[in-house]
Structures are given as C-alpha cells and as structure tokens.
Write a structure and sequence with these properties.
mainly alpha, 5 helices
Amino acid sequence: MSITPPRPPARDRYLGWVPVGLIGGELGGLALALTSTIWAWFNGLGFWYPLSLVGSLLLGESGVSHDAAAGADLLGVVILIVLSALFGLIFSYGVSHSSLGQGAIIALGIGWGLLLWAVGVAFIDARFIPAGLSDAPTSMMVVSFIAWGLLLGLVTAVSLARSPRLIRDRS
C-alpha cells in the first residue's frame, strides 16, 4: 500500500515560470533594442530612432523633437522593459504548463515575437505613432522581433529542461 502525499494547493505550487519569463523577456528586449538600434544606425536613421518611436506612443510627435528626444528615448526604454517583462511572463506561463519540447518552445518563442510584431503593426502603429515617425523599415522590425522571440524561447527552453522544479504539473 503506497501513500500518496496530498497535492499542494495552487497557491503553494512552485512559480518558477516567473523568473524565467522575466529574465527571458528582458534578455529578449535587450536583443530587440540592440538589433533595431544598430540596424537603424547603419541605415542612417540614427541609433536611438527605434526607441524614440516607442516613446512616441505616449509623447506624440512633439515629444520626439530634437529638444525632447532624450525624453522619448528614455520613455521608449521604460516601455520596452515593461512590455518585454509582461510578454515574457505570458509566454513562460503558457509553455511551462505544456508538454512541449525544447525545439518547439524556441520555435514558439519566435512565433510569439512575430505575432506581437504583427499585432503592433495592425493595431498600434497606425493609431498611436505619429504619421511622420512611423517609417521604421519592416525588415528592421521583423528581425528585431525574431531576435526577441528567439532569446525568450531559448531562455525558457533551457530553463525548463535544466530545472526539475520547473517541470510542468501534469496531474
């Protein structure tokens, strides 16, 4: 006769997906920022151009003028940090409660990045970024969001594979 220990209440279950999502999202955000800023710099748009675009979501066109450009850049960094953490947490939670393998998690991370890019283009760019500022090259943005998703997927896949406490609760 075996005695099975009682299943802990949901609030006591290990929340390892939280740091994985935060770290993966932030590393992905760093990859996105570096990829897009370097790309913009090499293409003559200016190193801080992508972060100014993100800052213009809240500041509008006047907020990214030469007088206030540093404010838009800083706001862009803050928005990127917050959204990277949020979307990293959502991704990590979803895959930590699945039985996907490492390759599938990495591919899903890239797909998640591309989905976020597509939603941004469809619903955010046209409505919130001023018309004169929304000239970011599509290739720059696609590559940047692929980099974000790739790093998020890699961090999540490796973390889930290495930590037995992060193995999904399948009961």
